[in-house]
Amino acid sequence: MTLPTLQHRRATETDRETLLAMRKSCGWGTDRIDSYISEPSWVTYLFFRPTEDGKGEQPVGMGCLVFDIPGDPTMANREQGVIAITSLFVFPECRASGVGNQTFTMLEQLAIHEYGAKTLAVDTRAYEIPWASEGESSYLKKWYERRGYVEYRPPIRRYAQDNHPDCVDSPDKSVLLYACFLRKEVGKS
Ligand SMILES: CC(C)(COP(=O)(O)OP(=O)(O)OC[C@H]1O[C@@H](n2cnc3c(N)ncnc32)[C@H](O)[C@@H]1OP(=O)(O)O)[C@@H](O)C(=O)NCCC(=O)NCCS
């Protein structure tokens, strides 16, 4: 069966529950929801397929572009054209069939062509054992590396575990998970 083409639009206040459901289904908490909707330095996109009757939307994923992070200008900085792609979430039932790849490629194209990015930045879980302080890179880090992203600074402890399904065996739920930081040059400076 051929699935309808993936489409995207900017998320609005009316999408709050859908965005929250995506974030929770990926194991994370509610902390960024307000930024998704109302933070002026963020643009949030909802990715969906049209329903069979063509009148509705079946949400499959989301992602954000962030244009300024004052405390972390290497990740997002309007003046230097550094845009962060964050909160890439695909509903679990929609994964492993190319949705993540398409969604991420669309976010990259939007950042470059709509917003003039010269550098793209991402952060993700550093290690395959999520609560470890070293070891094999996470599949997420490898996923970005396969798409041309290069780690540019050392990992730091950043993410709360919440009730993340990959952390059920973690011996200490209060330990923050290591984040790693990667960038890709996409334009002339
Ligand atoms: C990362 C994510 C967006 C990928 O979405 P997806 O729809 O499954 O992506 P695709 O079908 O395009 O591709 C699947 C890819 O993930 C890899 N992958 C998925 N799960 C994996 C796992 N458990 N172990 C190893 N690789 C895995 C596949 O090898 C494939 O990689 P490739 O395209 O480079 O060959 C999705 O897994 C997700 O939403 N994860 C939870 C949220 C999250 O952690 N987001 C990243 C925030 S930084």
Topology, please?
Elements: E1 7-10, H1 16-25, H2 33-38, E2 42-50, E3 57-66, E4 82-90, H3 99-114, E5 119-125, H4 139-146, E6 150-159, E7 177-185
Parallel strand pairs: 4-5
Antiparallel strand pairs: 1-2, 2-3, 3-4, 5-7, 6-7
Bound molecules: coenzyme A (COA).
Tell me about this structure.
This protein has 189 residues and is of the alpha+beta class. The model has no long low-confidence stretch (mean pLDDT 93). It is globular. It has helices at 16-25, 33-38, 99-114, 139-146; strands at 7-10, 42-50, 57-66, 82-90, 119-125, 150-159, 177-185. The protein has a seven-stranded mixed β-sheet with strand order 1-2-3-4-5-7-6, sandwiched between helices. The chain folds into two domains: 1-117, 3-Layer(aba) Sandwich (Aminopeptidase), CATH 3.40.630.30; 122-189, no CATH class. Bound molecules: coenzyme A. Coenzyme A is lined by residues 26, 88-90, 95-101, 124, 139-140, 143, 146.
